[in-house]
Amino acid sequence: MFAPMSLVKYEEARPWARSIRQRVSTKTMPPWGADPAHGVFKNDPRLSDQEIATILAWVDAGAPKGDDKDMPKAPSFVEGWTIGKPDVVFTMTEDFKIPPTGVVDYQYLRLPTGITEDKWIQAIEIKPQARAQVHHVLAYTQPTGSPLNEGGALGPGNIGGVTPNKPGVVFEPGVGRLLTANSDIVLQMHYTTNGQATTDRTQVGIVFAKDVPKMQQRGGSVIQPRFVIPAGAPAHEVRGSRVLAVDTLITSFTPHMHVRGKDMTYIAKFPDGTTETLLSVPKYDFNWQLSYELAKPRLFPKGTEIEVIAHFDNSPANKFNPDPTKDVRWGDQTFEEMMIGFWGTVVDRPATTSSQK
Ligand code: HEM
Fold first, then answer.
1. Is pLDDT above 50 for 260?
2. Measured in angstroms, how far is the CA atom of residue 13 from the centroid of ligand 1?
3. Whose alpha carbon is nearest atom 16 of ligand 1?
């Protein structure tokens, strides 16, 4: 289960009626951060005004059950996985002990796959066991037996990642990611301590594609590591940009900052001089690092500049701020900051992989 409780059956939803009223009327549930003025996203879960009115009327009428014969058929889910039943599950070979306090450096944990021919991933879900202590996981492949390459996390061998409250990823038909033959999956694990000692054994569930896909899912980003957010600053601006070196088909945007992240905007500056806001997340929330998946993948011509503008709230008014008296720079840890505007792209599948033999 993903959320704290299931709302599938009447008996499950009934005790939550008041809380549902509160979350739905304040629009904090279902979770979503994109300003509707910019972009159309296929995973936009927002309820219509009419749906909200129906839910509020139901709660205000005492949350009645209604007639059994009107009950829609319950959707069926595979227990524990949002991607359906995985074909294979790779599990960390040992427990990782997370101490109750202190800072844990990034861990790079290798999961042997034993796979001897290239396989295409249709869906992937990374499931930390110690959910409260896992800040993020990035998964990538590297050849079995080769020395650890820590830089591989955001390279072409990346096969997925997860941040708090994020479900698995199912690629469109005809699009996949490559699980290279004779490689290990490396998990870049960022554990954060929260007062409680525990252990973690993260799992990676994969559904393989039935056919070799035409396109490969990849990623790009604007990363701006050069900034100092002054102590107490309520809206410190940091900008970064990248000019696309080739025509690029973009499928999604994923803003990434830490707990001082306040908002993020992606702007395209086209070679013909026009500009367009692609995504605006006016109230960024570290606990809800969503990917905004475009309703239609969009081709950006070579030479387009993608500019990402972020603001950080380092003031005491930010309830997530661990220390408003400190200047903050780029760093791996949650009390430091990052400024990354990721995007997803699809590219033609490379011509030679062992699965085409
Ligand atoms: C109409 C749809 C939804 C309703 C009515 C709803 C309702 C709620 C309510 C009432 C709570 C508060 C529970 C508490 O007090 O402990 C909650 C929390 C939560 N929900 Fe939802 N939810 C919806 C959709 C979703 C979706 C789509 C997701 C996942 C993508 C999700 C994930 C969570 C999580 C992780 C929490 C705990 C964190 C928090 O309290 O913010 N919910 N939801």
1. yes
2. 11
3. 4
Which CATH number among 1.10.287.1080, 2.60.120.230, 3.40.50.280, 3.30.360.10 corresponds to the domain 219-348? 2.60.120.230
Per-domain boundaries in the chain: 10-70, 88-213, 219-348
Residue 4 Cβ inside 6 Å of ligand 1? The answer reads yes
**Is the shortest distance between the CB of 20 and ligand 1 below 6 Å?**
yes
Of 12, 29, 46, the one to substitute when testing ligand 1's pocket (max ligand atoms within 8 A of C-beta) is 29
DSSP assignment of 112-180: E----S-EEEEEEEEE-SSGGGEEEEEEEEEETTSPP-GGGGGSTTEEEEE-TT---EEPPTTEEEEE-
Kindly report the pTM of this predicted structure.
0.85
> Mean pLDDT throughout 167-179?
91
Is the pLDDT reported for residue 355 higher than 70? no
CATH hierarchy code of domain 88-213: 2.60.120.230
Q: Which residue has the higher pLDDT, 25 or 76?
A: 25
Q: Are 215 and 175 in contact (CB under 8 A)?
A: yes
Q: How far is the CA of 51 from the centre of ligand 1 (A)?
A: 16
Model confidence pLDDT, tens digit, residues 317-342: 999 999 999 999 999 888 999 999 99
